[in-house]
Design brief:
2 copies of one chain form a homodimer.
Chain A: E1 2-3, E2 13-18, H1 25-36, E3 42-46, H2 47-53, H3 62-81, E4 85-89, H4 95-107, E5 112-118, H5 121-127, H6 132-137, E6 159-162, H7 168-181
Parallel strand pairs in A: 2-4, 2-5, 3-4, 5-6
């Protein structure tokens, strides 16, 4: 429950990155965050941190993933209500679940900006920073998104970036440009 | 992870009510909240809301209660970082667990104000708004705090109120007076 008596809404919003493991959600969220922090408090809820603090004990079944995503959505909404930019960087593989979170936000007047961080599976497999794709392809990790578990890309994300060939700075600029166009970030001042 | 680049901390804090079921934590938090809302965003995390959105599936063992309290503490800390007054109203029966949450807050410079909402068990049993004490005393509810599960009162709470004979308005004023004395709330202006 929140109380807003003598103050106008302070302009928080939810910036929701979705994409496969290793696609660059966390990297991109860290590239974008400092640009937002000049104007408001920014909090990044990344998949690992959330699994530790909010969702320990949950697994990777559809049901457990949905509970996890709804929890992230709940906390992001609370932060946005408080005027913060809540940046989430969890895989969040199911379209319907992301859309439910969006509806909950928009029902409260909280802007929800979905950013699809695309990457071809071949790229991720060849990059494989954590060695997870090799293990998943060998059948050692059940429910691995993109290999042995579904990933449903957004039907109409506000922004799509690709980490296949696009520089992080370029992807970040696309996100920032969208936020400026929406009035969620001050226009860039050029000296 | 949070980013604070060009802005000072905005003065969020955690106001943590603890006490037995029916002692008046939610009632008191709702009495206090409007007085805080003039100066900052206020969010009440009450026990029932949190059980729905953050902790569904957890039970009432010591371990599950501790996980629940740590989750509330995590979210309250995020909100306070964003400059909000995070008001919690969960039983939170274990002293050590509350103290851990306090340490996490204070380590970040976030003021943690613990309010013990006292009430004699006889009062709660005779009041028994939800009929839970009668059922717990009949042995129908295992792990019921104060009857079949422990409640450890705070050793040194910032504020102690009693809902036995004290009016809610008087209890609320004690909490507000403490916040003013700590500089967490503007001094009262008398016309």
């Amino acid at each position: 429950m929140s109380f807003e008596q003598s103050q106008a809404r302070r302009g928080g919003f939810v910036l929701w990155f979705t994409g496969l493991s290793g696609a660059g959600k966390s990297t991109l969220s860290r590239a974008v965050a400092p640009h937002l922090a000049a104007e408001r408090h920014v909090e990044i809820l990344d998949g690992d941190e959330v699994r530790t603090h909010l969702s320990r004990g949950l697994g990777f079944s559809r049901e457990d993933r949905d509970v996890n995503v709804h929890r992230i959505g709940f906390v992001a909404r609370l932060l946005a209500r408080a005027g913060a930019a809540a940046v989430t960087a969890a895989i969040s593989p199911y379209r319907e679940t992301r859309d439910e979170v969006r509806r909950h936000c928009e029902a409260e007047g909280i802007p929800f900006v979905e950013v699809h961080v695309q990457a071809r599976l071949e790229t991720l497999v060849s990059r494989d920073v954590k060695g997870l794709y090799a293990r998943a392809l060998a059948g050692e990790i059940p429910h691995f998104t993109g290999v042995s578990d579904p990933y449903e890309p957004p039907a109409a994300p506000e922004v799509t970036v690709s980490s296949d060939g696009e520089e992080v700075a370029r992807s970040a600029e696309k996100v920032l440009a969208h936020l400026r166009a929406r009035g969620l970030l001050e226009p860039e001042v050029r000296a």
